[in-house]
Amino acid sequence: MRLYKKEGNTIQILSFPGDNVEKGDYLLIEDPKVSKGLITQVIDVQFANVPGILEELLRDSTTDQHVHGENFDPLEVSSHINYIQDAWMLLCKIRGTTQDRKLCENNSWFPSRFQSKVKKLPITSLLTFAKISEGLPINIGETKETSALTIDAHALDGKLNIVTGKKETGKSHLSKLLVLGLIDYGAPVVVLDLNGEYVNLGFSSKGEKNEYYGRVHVLTPGGNLKVSLAQMDLRVMLNILVHALDLPGTSTREFRRIWRFLQQRRAFTLHELGEAIRNWNCNQHVRDALFSRYYSLLNSGFFTDNLAEATTLEDFFQRIRNGGALVINLRDVSSVDRQIVVEYTLGKLVELLTQWEIRAVFLFAEEAHLYLRETYWDDIVTRMRHFGVFTTFVTNQPDTIRENIYRQADNIFLFNFTNERDLETVSRAARVDSETVKSIARDLPPHHCLILGKAVKDFPMVAKVKALDVQTMGQTRLFFTDKN
Amino acid sequence: MNLLIEQLHYTTTQKYNFPQSLEDLQLPQKFIELSLRSMKSMEGEYFQPNEITFNQSKMENSGDAAPVFGNHSFTIEAIPLRPLLEDTPVAAVDVSSIKVGETETGILCAIRGAIVWKEESHYKYLRLGPFPFHITEENRKEIYTLFRHHYLETSEETSAPNLNNMQTRMGNLLERWLQMGISCSAHDSIILWDGSLTAGTVDSPVNVVSQLLEIARNRLNTVLAFSKTTHLRLFGHRLTDLVGKSQPPFLLQINGFPMPSGPVFSLGNVYVAKLTHGICSFRLDIDRKVPRERGIETVRKLLGNDLLLQGYPETLRLAHIFSTFTANEVIGIQRFIAQQCGLRTITRPNVRRLLFGPFGKGSEG
Which letter does DSSP use for residue A270 in this model? Predict the structure, then answer.
């Protein structure tokens, strides 16, 4: 391999058959005289622009159908010609600089074109170089070189993460792996499980209880997740009414008065709330508005007056104080009820974090655009992060996540996308250049993900996500089932 | 008897008996040895690869000056042609040579030949080479003499051409050898040569070309030589411009031109061939010793058996294409030579560019 050209952050390297270089591979351009090196990553492989190649192809095309023959080449010169014809141009991005075989910050150094040697940098060496697998390792899978790829759980701590890719590429699988990896290190995890994919994390693929059985708690709204009004904070309740149920401002003010009235009377039941609305001295339209929301709350099944069946998130967090996951199963929950549950959950999380009842929580949100209100997006990446809610968004529709979320994302786990628009959206991530995203993500096979960001110390890496021995439950129900 | 001819089989004379395998066209081991030996002489030298230049065409019309058309009385006869659909094999030969670089002591060139033949509706080809050569002042005579000795079976001493002409001359000699191979192995076929039937030059001694034609005739083959360009003029007009108003395909026969004088002359009857519509017409030489009618019939058979693009036979066109060097092949050959001989590559400054900047076009001089 020979260093050919540099334009901006892009380096072109001439490569020949036998170099065995692919997209995503790392190359080290070393200048032994100064003990410096440039770490580059191949983001695209093109044919080298060899002179005369068009003539060669045209000539060869004549031999396709009606022209046959043989070559007498006793000196085997043609192998050298083929070698030239098959030359590749590797488009690489500069990822870092080394000095005396240690990473250094200065990226301004540039190697000599003729003195420097270009060689492949094995991922294992890079992992060691960049100290990526140190700390609290979570095994993601394996690299192309079949070496294990682990990321440090610290790289997810206090961070905003995005897992995205088109359908059936393995997003949920990876997020489950991250959930279990965090649990292993005693982290509390809350999963907003839209499709009930995480509910069996406590079971092996054979249906037997696994090591996570006691640490994964599935909370089904209206089932084992019910709350009483007495446990509710006014602010959380108002969030539900305003954001989930669209209660207008005037009615909200009246509701606040009613709530305080009930508070004074220490009569926090659904029945009392209904009665208070009925008897409250207010405009009929306001009363109608309050009643419609009241019945929405009532019909959600999420609220109960029976204190025995009422649960609190505090209790559940107590159960996972040494690490575990609260899976909030939103499957079969209507859109409005889903928003009520999410408003309650997030409000409660902030409340618990503010009161330091929990230190921090890792929140996994699948297809969050289906239940997260507009204002929460910014809230999650700024205010709530400071409280200790560290979110991982999982989606197959990258354009449902706002651009500023991508810009602020610390880690992106990117699966295959072929659609230009999807790639364009994801490429806005600040942690890597758009060409890398577009070029590598387009060719990722299923279950392979491109990891970008702090988890890989900003050295984008492709990993084949490892298999999990848990019941995934993520499969789509099919009509034509295989009877064999 | 010629070593080469001895290796060929005269006995099995079937209709389609073009080189079935390499055994039929054995390249003298000497040739390959010569290539390797010439390159051994430069081990460890500096090597300056040539900038990619065009293939050197052989001295196609080296004897084009003959026949000379003076102020004699001529008649030009148009011979209309109808394709003769009689199944006849068509074979063609072409050779290319190219200079690939220079060393401290000489030049590096490569030669490649191609034979194409058409059987029924299929074209087949045999490509020989490329053969790289390192030609120096010390070995040029040896190389040239060996070439002449092996290919032309001639022992007469001639002075080797200067270094710059060697590649072309070696290409011409290889072409003669391939033509000989085809003449010996084909039967009742049309053999197409690129160029003319001019004889009497250093690379085309009269006895050699005569022998080639004779062998071809003895095997009922007819040699047709197509020249893409010619310097022959009649009344100031280029010969190939004299196409008149006849409807192609036709031949123009120039009656009454004098027999050439001097050492260089043509062994063929010269025609202007316009075989299809379009702008191209070619000088066509047909073996003089082939009866006129048979020669014309052969052209008609060519029309009936080969494709013609712009009036040029496809078999001959393919032979040219398969022998020609492309730019990437030149780079590949340079790499082969550099690696085989451990040459150190250097780039000498281009004096023209240094002196004239963007106006210094053309090869370094």
Answer: H
Verify that A206 and A116 share a domain, yes or no.
Answer: no
Contact B333 A77 (CB under 8 A): yes
Q: What is the pLDDT of residues B3-14, one digit of tens each?
A: 333 333 333 333
- Residue B205 placed within a domain: yes
Tens digits of residue pLDDT in A10-68 = 999 999 988 889 888 999 999 888 888 999 999 999 999 888 888 888 877 766 667 88
Domain count, chain A: 3
Q: How many independent structural domains does chain B possess?
A: 1
A56 shares contact with chain B (CB less than 8 Å)? yes
Q: Does the distance separating the beta carbons of A85 and B332 come in below 8 Å? A: yes
Last residue in a domain, options A67, A87, A121: A121
What CA–CA distance (Å, rounded) separates B174 from B93? 10
- What is the domain range of residue A295? 229-300
Say whether residue B22 is in contact with chain A using an 8 A CB cutoff.
Answer: yes
Q: Which of A59, A69, A74 sits opposite B126 (nearest CB)?
A: A69
Rounded distance, CA A200 to CA B199, Å? Answer: 93
Q: How far apart are CA A145 and CA A218, in angstroms?
A: 38
**Taking the model in full, what pTM does it have?**
0.76
Q: Which of B126, B318, B329 sits opposite A81 (nearest CB)?
A: B329
Residue A475, both tokens: 């499969």
Dihedral angle of Cα A334, A340, A342, A345, to the nearest 10 degrees: -140
For residue range A227-264, list pLDDT tens digits in order: 988 888 888 899 889 888 889 999 999 999 999 998 88
User: Is residue A95 located within the same domain as residue A191?
Assistant: no
* A57 vs B: CB within 8 A: no
Which residues have CB under 8 Å from A101's CB, separation 6+? A35, A37, A129
Cβ distance B94 to B177 under 8 Å? Answer: no
Phi, psi of A461 (to 5 degrees): -135, 145
Which residue type is seen at B326? T
Whether B365 is in a domain gets the answer no
Chain A residues touching residue B36 (CB < 8 angstroms): 75
Q: What's the CA angle centered on A346, arms A344 and A349, to 5 degrees?
A: 105
Q: To the nearest 5 percent, what fractions of chain B are helix, strand and coil? A: 35, 25, 40
Do residue A198 and residue A260 come from a single domain? Answer: no
Amino acid identity for residue A28 in this structure: L
User: Is residue A478 assigned to a domain?
Assistant: no
Chain B residues touching residue A62 (CB < 8 angstroms): 318, 321
- The answer to whether B36 faces chain A, any CB pair under 8 Å, is yes
Q: Report CB contact under 8 Å: B333, A83.
A: no
Count Cβ atoms within 10 A of the Cβ of residue B172 and give its class: 0-12 exposed, 13-18 middle, 19 or more buried: buried
Beta strands in A173-215, from DSSP E residues, in sequence order? 188-193
For B157, the token pair is 């001493």
DSSP alpha helix (H) spans, chain B: 3-7, 29-40, 140-152, 163-185, 206-218, 292-305, 314-323, 327-341, 351-356
